[in-house]
Amino acid sequence: MAATRAKTKRAAQGFTWEGVEVLAYKAEGAAPFKDVTRQVLFEDPHLAAQWRYFEVAPGGHTTLERHQHVHAVMVIRGRGACLVGDEVYTIEPHDLISVPPLTWHQFRATEREPLGFLCLVNAERDRPELPGPQDLQALRQNPRVAAFIRV
Description:
The protein is mainly beta. It contains two helices and nine strands.
């Protein structure tokens, strides 16, 4: 068996890494979001997962969506809040968030600072599902969720 070479990526400035491209979160107009970038930190065929870093600018938010796959999230920068299912949580560095399959979720940064988080997902995964009118009506039954979500 041939030896596999280790791959290393050095931290560059702030929350970027050498050789890792800062990408758009999604194609503009594909889904509602505000001021989010993503970086794919690890994607290896021997590891059936992808490790990504997302950064939400102050006042920004990710898309309200759900998937069949699970997300494992660790906040490493800033503060904000997230919706998971029908609960809104305040989040800060070192918090861990588990998003179960087919669970509505959305992340928001505070108005004062960016929110940065690592996200571990399956390398092969389904496309996001956006809420329809009936889904939004159901989510808005909870006043705290209604006040939180951005669509």
